[in-house]
Design brief:
With 214 residues, the protein is an alpha+beta fold. The chain has a single domain, classed as 3-Layer(aba) Sandwich (Aminopeptidase). The chain is built from 7 helices and 10 strands. The protein is globular, with a radius of gyration of 16 Å. It starts with 9 loop residues before the first strand and ends with a helix.
Length: 214
């Protein structure tokens, strides 16, 4: 979409691409959302979460509405970049980068899910590394945060492997029930020690032109 250059931002690794979440890509990814392939056991998302909606068509509608709202919000206090994870030409998940008072603090956080039939192959690790490369290398972030329920073994392992440090715990609800979250913190220095040279950023100049980074 040439009229909105943020939708041309792309990140490439040897295993996958993160492509800006255009409506065309979201429409393809909606197949997995409608089929319930975003779910996992134990439940990975805190409330409120559109992906917990039991009706498949309403689940897709609420998921799209949330992305459309977030995609259009570009403010100094909060902005979001939504990416569709593409493997061998097929959309298989979502990866989001969220700026949190970025112009003042330089901090980001992330959110992601991977279709159930593509888990267990290291793609979650790869997509997190890709979006962190955009944050630190492309946007000049100072720090990245993440959180996951204490029983979300996969997400906690990714954070640990990528050099995040434990940053306390907090309570949240999932499906209306209280559950404990691990909080994680990744400094720029820690990322620099593990940074890769095989991740490519494309059209990042759009972020500098249209996001409130400074």
């Amino acid at each position: 979409m040439r009229s909105y250059p943020l939708l041309e931002v792309r990140i490439g690794t040897p295993r996958l691409e993160l492509r800006s979440a255009t409506d065309e890509l979201l429409d393809e990814l909606a197949v997995a959302v409608r089929a319930g392939k975003t779910d996992a056991e134990p439940a990975p998302y805190d409330d409120p979460m559109s992906l917990y909606e039991p009706d498949p068509d309403l689940r897709v509608a609420k998921w799209l509405q949330g992305i459309w709202r977030g995609r259009g919000r570009v403010e100094p206090g909060a902005w979001r970049l939504y990416f569709v994870v593409v493997v061998d030409g097929t959309p298989v998940g979502e990866q989001t980068l969220i700026g949190v008072d970025f112009s003042t603090l330089g901090t980001v956080t992330t959110f992601s899910w991977l279709s159930a039939d593509h888990r267990g192959r290291g793609l979650g690790h790869e997509m997190r590394e890709a979006v962190l490369h955009l944050a630190f290398e492309g946007l000049g972030a100072r720090e990245a945060a993440s959180d996951a329920f204490v029983d979300n073994v996969g997400s906690n392992a990714i954070s640990r492997d990528l050099g995040y440090e434990p940053n306390g715990t907090e309570w949240a609800t999932r499906r209306g029930e209280p559950a404990l979250l691990n909080r994680w913190r990744l400094t720029r220095d820690a990322w620099e020690q593990r940074r890769r040279d095989d991740i490519r950023l494309h059209h990042v100049e759009a972020c500098h032109a249209l996001l409130p980074l400074t």
